[in-house]
Write a structure and sequence with these properties.
The chain is of the alpha+beta class and about 725 residues long. The chain is about 15% helix and about 35% strand.
Length: about 725
């Protein structure tokens, strides 16, 4: 038994890549129960084989619900399933571009692996078709009974035109199918997809659109896909919509791009134009983890590098020599296991040991390839800890029945030789191109992408615009991969910069500020402004209060709201001025120019505007406020009126009445004067008699009072009575 040598390694940075786009996926997450979903994902690849198209597909199902049947176990690995409906009547078919009805294989396959916790099964099948069409699409629609009601589609595009750089038909990208992927809840994780290209083209990944994958293609609440490295970045937290214990469907389209301009027949393809595409669908499980986001699994240094290429020679194939590849896994925790995606006919044994606090697991795999497996095959392993968290991938690319063309060192200078199936490709250093990197690139060829500028000094150099990088400005920066958006904000990037689309109640460049204005607290068209977690309302005229809900009485607030004697009347949210004649405007401040608006002066009178009024200067012969009266007519009219009101006979009568009244008054006065002179002496005599009478009464009254006093004294002093009497008499 011999093992073929590993002649090259192919990481993500070997081939030139471009358009490093980070795409933000925001779709409603429909969470599937772990026991109800059966179809877990699949992929398909193809290549030309002796004027036929050879297809290889892999699929995942919940254990016991796929073609393997309800009693599926590890003993079924290597067996071909013959399950009936719906697996036997669901076919790969040509959906676009075929002249005839082209049908491929059904869903039955050879079981290649089974796993537990959760239980799953994976299988692979190979079928071929004649090349009857040039450009077409092969599709497989999974029945709704296997996908919880969704109709999931897998599609691949095929172009059989000959490439001018390889002088052969293009081969599609190839992907291994992760049967189970687990990431820790509450942590930022990176899932790198296991993809490669048989022609040495640049491989890129993008989110699949609904026209390619059907219903429910992607269920991730939020994730970012680095198209150039085919890496998915996830922040599996509740704020991003993730729930521990749930799994989410992922659908990605893998495309190959030429490293430099090529021709497919007569059509020129540039480095930013895809050649073909394949699907890659799987599930990501979010699991509670006790490692606090620290990975517990690593791959030992004695492993071959990830994505190493191994040539399994035609002699080894002819002599039925096993293709052997061990994988060494190291962990800080016990009970570490693994999951794998292998082609048919691979058998695996494991051994465990530990040293100190390290636990080691060796996965020893042997493979005796089948004739229909000639060409590129990808074999991948992932470590899996006790919580269900999986490690990064570790893959080997096996070239079956191949010779290592890179042994002869065909690439010029410092170019890197890529060993491919029955051929090689050179990864050129900056400034060179060609099959062996023998040609210098000049600025005349416009090598700089994304509007980069070129300069030449023995070799070309690209000066990239903001947001791009790389030798050809082919990579776009990916700021969203660091999850800059806080509080559930969604990140989208363009030309190296990013923008956060914030959730309810948050704003700011990174959604870091609480948006108190989101609930629109300001009424009546008030303007809300955030203020340190609170808000302040700027009210429009006519309103006041913290939320602009109170009417402002402008008429009471100021007596000068209406000018020039206008009357202010308050309304809800406003006020109205009723202006006096001659004034207008909201506040009665605008003088009405009666002269220009109304022409009030008649008969060619001259109008002069005055504040709030006007005056007319009339021409000769006219008078009145508006020069509307003729002065001659007015004077004649006055004379006629005087004549009609006071006729001459009436004036004589009035003069006679006045004179008679005057004479009568004089006569009455003279008569009254004679009468008063006659009665004046008699009135004097009457006054004299009345005066004497009043004097006699007064004397008698005094005498009576004195007599009463004397009698009162006599009663008090009887012994001197005679004296008292005398005194009184004398008195």
């Amino acid at each position: 038994m011999t093992r073929s040598a590993i002649v090259s390694s192919r990481g993500t940075g070997i081939a030139m890549k471009e358009n490093n786009v980070v795409v933000c996926l925001l779709l409603a997450a429909v969470l599937f129960d772990l026991t109800s979903c059966t179809f877990l994902g699949g992929t398909i690849s193809w290549r030309e084989n002796r004027m036929k198209i050879r297809y290889i597909y892999r699929m995942n199902f919940d254990l016991g619900t796929g073609p393997c049947g309800s009693g599926c176990s590890a003993t079924d690995i290597g067996s071909k399933t013959v399950t009936g409906r719906p697996f036997s009547d669901t076919y790969w078919t040509c959906s676009v571009g075929c002249l005839n009805n082209v049908t491929g294989s059904d869903l039955n396959y050879v079981v290649t692996a089974v796993g537990d916790n959760p239980d799953w099964e994976q299988g692979e099948n190979i079928f071929q078709q004649r090349m009857t069409d040039t450009m077409f699409t092969m599709s497989l629609t999974i029945p709704a009974t296997l996908t919880n009601g969704n109709r999931i589609t897998l599609s691949t595009t095929i172009d059989t035109r000959v490439r001018n750089d390889t002088q052969g038909i293009n081969s599609s990208p190839v992907a291994a199918l992760p049967p189970y992927t687990g990431i820790p809840f509450g942590c930022v994780s990176n899932v790198t997809l296991p993809v490669m290209d048989p022609d040495g083209d640049v491989v890129k990944c993008r989110w699949t659109n609904s026209s390619e994958c059907g219903q429910g293609c992607n269920e991730l609440p939020e994730a970012y896909l680095d198209e150039n490295s085919c890496s998915i970045y996830l922040n599996a937290t509740s704020s991003k919509g993730y729930t521990a214990g749930h799994r989410y469907r992922v659908s990605v389209t893998v495309e190959d791009f030429p490293r430099f301009p090529i021709k497919l027949a007569s059509k020129v393809l540039l480095p930013n134009q895809p050649i073909n595409s394949i699907p890659l669908q799987f599930h990501i499980n979010v699991v509670p983890s006790s490692t606090h986001c620290k990975p517990s699994i690593t791959f030992d240094k004695k492993n071959f590098p990830d994505n190493s290429v191994a040539s399994y020679s035609f002699m080894d194939f002819h002599n039925h020599v096993d293709f052997v590849f061990p994988i060494y896994i190291s962990s800080t925790r016990p009970n570490t296991t693994f999951v794998q995606s292998f082609p048919q006919m691979v058998t695996t044994t494991t051994s465990k040991n530990h040293s100190g606090n390290r636990h080691y697991l060796e996965v020893y795999s042997k493979w005796r390839p089948l004739p229909q497996q000639l060409g590129e095959n990808i074999l991948c392993v992932w470590g899996k800890d006790h919580d269900g968290v999986t490690s990064r991938k570790h893959c080997i690319i096996g070239l079956i029945a191949d010779s290592n063309e890179c042994i002869s060192r065909p690439c010029h200078g410092s170019a890197t030789c890529l060993n491919l199936y029955m051929k090689y490709a050179c990864s050129c250093p900056p400034g060179f191109r060609g099959g062996n990197c023998q040609e210098k690139i000049t600025c005349a060829e416009n090598p700089c992408l994304n509007n980069g500028s070129c300069s030449f000094n023995s070799t070309f150099s690209c000066h990239c615009n903001k947001g791009f990088m790389g030798n050809f400005c082919q990579y776009e920066k990916q700021p969203c991969s660091s999850f800059p958006c806080k509080n559930g904000g969604r990140c989208s990037s363009s030309r190296g910069s990013y923008k956060c689309m914030c959730h309810t109640n948050f704003l700011g460049q990174n959604c870091e500020t609480f948006d108190a204005c989101h609930s629109t607290p300001c009424l009546n068209n008030g303007t809300c402004k955030n203020l340190n977690g609170s808000f302040v309302c700027q009210c429009p005229p006519g309103w006041k209060g913290t939320d602009c809900s109170q009417d402002l009485n402008e008429c009471a607030q100021s007596t000068s709201m209406c000018s020039n004697g206008g009357t202010c009347i308050n309304h809800i949210g406003s006020f109205v001025c009723h202006c006096k004649s001659g004034w207008t405007g909201n506040s009665c401040t605008q003088d009405i120019d009666e002269c220009s608006h109304y022409s009030p002066c008649h008969n060619n009178g001259t109008c002069r505007n005055t504040p709030g009024s006007f005056s007319c200067t009339c021409h000769k012969g006219w008078m009145g406020a508006n020069c509307q009266l003729s002065s001659h007519l007015v004077m004649n009219d006055v004379n006629e009126k005087e004549k009609s009101l006071f006729p001459l006979p009436l004036l004589y009568i009035l003069a006679g009445i006045i004179l008679g009244c005057l004479l009568l008054g004089i006569c009455i006065y003279l008569i009254f004067k004679r009468y008063r002179a006659k009665i004046q002496p008699k009135l004097k005599d009457c006054h004299s008699v009345e005066s004497n009478r009043r004097d006699s009464k007064d004397l008698q009254s005094k005498s009576n009072k004195n007599l009463q006093r004397a009698k009162a004294k006599a009663k008090l002093k009887p012994k001197v009575k005679g004296r008292v009497v005398r005194q009184s008499l004398e008195f």
